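Hey, I'm writing a tutorial for new members on how sequence and structure tokens pair up, and I'd like a real worked example in the thread rather than a made-up one. If someone can provide the structure for the chain below, I'll link this post from the tutorial.
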Amino acid sequence: MFGLAPEKYLPRLRSFIFASAPYDWALEWSKTGPVSPLERALPGDALRGQSQRIADITSNQKAGHDPATGGDHSGSDFSWLADMQASGLDTSARIAREITANWITRNGRWQPRTWHMPVLADRLYNWVCASSFLLAGADASFRHQFTKALARQARHLFIAVRLGVPLPQGFAVQQALICCALAMPDPGSRLKNGTTRLHQAIGDEVLADGGHVSRNPSVQFQALRHLIETRTILRNHPSGAPVWLQAAIDKMTPMLRTFVLGNGQLAAFNGAGHFDAKTIELLLKISEAGGRAVTNSPHSGYQRLASRAAIVLMDAGAPANGGRCSLENAGTLAFEMSVGKQRLIVNCGLPADGNPALMTALRGTAAHSTLCIGEMNSSEINSTGFLGPRRAWRTQAVRREIDKNTLVEATHDGYRLPFGLTHKRTLYLAAEGTELRGEDVITGTAEQPAVIRFHLHPSVQASLIEAGNSVLLKFGKIAGWRFRTSVADLTLQPSLFYDGATRRQSQQIVINFRHHGPVSVIKWRLSKED
């Protein structure tokens, strides 16, 4: 029946089945039994656990997850359980049981938001890993309620996968399949099914240079975290962790290092969110993988220039074309820069959740430190939230390193269809790490207005000097850099930066000019003040 149904009707048909009374009755036959707790690879944050507010957790649970917007689901995925478990407070287990019991009462049956696949997968993993914490000292009523809910949701997960529900990128569902197989009675073929699906997903999602197909630093982090967590789980099983799993971890870890800037956080490219620097550092440590940050990643499409205290990361690749990621950005040839622990040039980033108009604007070219022609995105973002057919399909990057000086030349054709124009950006980072030179070139005959933006981190103070043809940048007590350009129309304008869920006001350096053809060349330079 499913094979004959048109593809566009399958999601609606599956939802109809999952919401039906017969399906709910079928889940009642899920086999329950003692839950075998599994070891957690990344411990929770004790301080965060001690400061958790019940009202905040339950509020997030009621909000759930909206698949259309990718909204926050930090309550219903039960990620907060690890923090409460690590808190060391005598009352934590009782509070966690109370919240869990109330959630089960409200969400015992399938619901499209709280049983959404990525939310469900994370919740199952967190429940199993925290099962000893939740069940120690629990009465018989909660034990029955919890084990029954766990069995029902685990069975639904296996059924949903067999029915072809699209799996999110990042290996969360595959990890949950393995986790549930090991934690519940009679793993049987379920464990083999989970490991087989994980192996296939790694082949589909991990590029040759170790990057994730989404090109999203946050997805890179989450995917690697799921692999490391799965390795920890399987190491405690008699069969052990397969060799290919560690090989995938070894492959992905250097690429995650590529995305880490001087302050230990991830660069804001292609929908990347905020992660605590200590968490990133810990994940890299427990990966047990060597390998330095990848400087030239032709498959993932990033170029990393690093000299002493300066780090520059440039998006020199074509936008992802997987069709499953709705957060691809139109930021081709954008770059971010840090000096020591200070982020200097940034992209605006994305909040964890936001209205569609805001999210679309923040994914646009103007929200990135790159060039924009004709007030148009370099890749079209359509009404569904995905990239449209007009995009920067062809990108090219050439890298040269001489005496520790690094030169990268990159081009894209995102403006070829509407205007017949191409954009080339050249970045040169001096060996001392005290100077970054740039050149933006537009080639083509069409006459169009153009803007080059350099979004500044909120902690950077900027002021126009020297008759308005340069900008002094200050951060900290004595640090100062100067921005200069060959164009007279240089201004400072308001900007914004998302630091996790926090929206912060900032500034941006803006260069306006008009391309008359056949070639426009804009040179600029960032250099440290003596």
